[in-house]
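Need a sequence for this fold. Nothing fancy.
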């Protein structure tokens, strides 16, 4: 799909469909509205009179236009109150409009800019909304597959806005394509996306976008002493891999290395502590954190902020094989700490422990890990907010700000020392579960043991990495949660901020 700007009169633009946002408080005195009125035989005021067009957010009216316009059809889309209009509304408008127009078989459409939001970030958000909204998970369908495509999108702006809009298009495409890349990976069944295949995809990605890549096999993982990671891998016949991606900027503005660590469980059966069958098919998504790390490095390699970023994805299945790890086993992590494995289904923290130690070993001085870590997180925050915890409030605040700018939602949970009691072990340094209470927090405490004293933040994306309900700019299925936050985080470190 091609997205370009056009800085000319909106009414001259020849197009199959023109998208016009309408605010609740729009009056006929508005220059564009009154011009449109005149050219369309009072279409706007007629629709308002009939009560079909109120401007309520995401309301749509799609009509053939009589009159003096380059467009054959108009899609009016409700933009809510002007006062409340923000970048997230822009994303929702983009997704809703693009999806509706595709369903009506439009191939080429144009958007009119009506807001006074800063042009670059507004354009970026619109493009994100469009591309995220058009994503479909039906890759394996042979029937009823989406066969309608929008090929060309034009954004109509004022001449002095064009350069900003061009930059916004560029950035929006990078963000959305990185996210959709992640969604495709998460969507893959575990029979396709084995740890080996996962590492091959990472290798391809690295070659395409100019990243350094290294894939450690089990022998090298063992040499590094990652007993906690290997314990989980024992039950699976598919060999485990540690995926290592590195982005090195041409120039460094700050001598910092960010370490992104993602949970890469290609399928979580629970292992010997096997899960109930109901809903188990969803556990192919248990590598969503790892996929987000790949996507983030892809985006960062394109934007090229002046900071170093390393990605670590421990990848393995969690399976109940004959040689699988069993409850009661004790493993020794790379850091030297011993772990009593009470429940083999609490495997994410086991592989991340070594992933985090490895990122620290390679010089990461700020660590962010992402994981579909706990069912408790789904219970606590549902599919709207991901949980964030960490050992450094400044870093937590920075990540929350990055998320807000990218339209992702994070809610901080407490990580007070009292909760640490729950993961004390009688026989080893620590145990891998802390009982039913505050499961998301005790899981984070477990990770903290391996991160301290390096500034570290943990995102539990168990509820947000996959959605069952359609959202205005996210179709059903994998969301790519965390990808844009990580990219934005790297950009902010280079001094970039987005208004929100
Ligand atoms: N991948 C799961 C987390 C999960 C569970 C996500 C349910 C979405 C829905 C994780 O590995 C896991 O199984 N966690 C256990 C931990 C427990 C055994 C302490 C959980 O949350 O039930
Ligand atoms: Zn599990
Ligand atoms: Zn898991």
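Here you go.
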């Amino acid at each position: 799909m091609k997205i370009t700007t056009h800085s000319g009169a909106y009414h001259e633009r020849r197009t199959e469909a023109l998208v016009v946002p309408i605010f609740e408080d729009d009056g006929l005195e508005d220059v564009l509205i009154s011009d449109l009125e005149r050219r369309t035989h009072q279409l706007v005021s007629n629709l308002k009179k009939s009560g079909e067009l109120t401007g309520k957010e995401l309301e749509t009216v799609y009509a053939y236009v009589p009159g003096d316009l380059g467009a054959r059809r108009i899609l009016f889309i409700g933009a809510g109150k002007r006062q409340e209009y923000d970048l997230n509304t822009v994303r929702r408008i983009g997704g809703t409009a693009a999806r509706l127009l595709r369903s009506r078989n439009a191939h080429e459409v144009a958007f009119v800019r009506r807001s006074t939001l800063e042009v670059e970030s507004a354009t970026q958000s619109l493009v994100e909304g469009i591309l995220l909204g058009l994503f479909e998970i039906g890759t394996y369908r042979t029937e009823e597959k989406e066969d309608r495509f929008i090929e060309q999108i034009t954004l109509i702006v004022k001449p002095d806005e064009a350069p900003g809009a061009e930059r916004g298009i560029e950035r929006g495409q990078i963000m959305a394509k990185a996210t959709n890349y992640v969604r495709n990976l998460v969507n893959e069944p575990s029979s396709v996306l084995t740890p080996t295949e996962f590492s091959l995809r990472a290798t391809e990605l690295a070659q395409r976008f100019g990243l350094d890549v290294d894939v450690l096999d089990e022998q090298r993982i063992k040499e590094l002493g990652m007993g906690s990671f290997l314990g989980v891998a024992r039950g699976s016949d598919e060999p485990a891999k540690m995926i290592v991606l590195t982005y090195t900027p041409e120039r460094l503005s700050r001598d910092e290395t960010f370490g992104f660590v993602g949970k890469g469980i290609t399928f979580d059966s629970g292992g010997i502590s096997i899960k109930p069958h109901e809903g188990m098919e969803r556990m192919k998504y248990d590598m969503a954190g790892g996929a987000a790390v790949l996507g983030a490095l892809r985006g960062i390699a394109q934007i090229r902020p002046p900071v170093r970023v390393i990605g670590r994805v421990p990848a393995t299945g969690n399976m109940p094989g004959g040689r699988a790890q069993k409850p009661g086993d004790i493993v020794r992590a790379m850091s030297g700490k011993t772990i009593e494995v009470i429940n083999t289904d609490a495997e994410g923290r086991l592989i991340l422990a070594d992933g985090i130690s490895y990122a620290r070993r390679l010089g990461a001085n700020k660590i962010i890990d992402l994981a579909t870590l706990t069912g408790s997180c789904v219970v606590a925050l549902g599919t709207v907010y991901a949980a964030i915890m960490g050992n450094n409030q400044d870093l937590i605040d920075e990540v929350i700000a990055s998320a807000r700018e990218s339209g992702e939602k994070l809610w901080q949970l407490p990580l007070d020392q009292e909760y640490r009691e729950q993961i004390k072990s009688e026989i080893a340094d620590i145990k891998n579960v802390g009982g039913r209470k505050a499961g998301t927090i005790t899981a984070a405490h477990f990770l903290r043991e391996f991160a301290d004293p390096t500034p570290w933040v943990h995102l539990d994306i168990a509820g947000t990495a996959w959605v069952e309900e359609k959202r205005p700019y996210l179709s059903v299925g994998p969301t790519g949660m965390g990808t844009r936050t990580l990219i934005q985080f790297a950009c902010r470190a280079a001094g970039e901020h987005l208004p929100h």
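For context: The radius of gyration is 24 Å.
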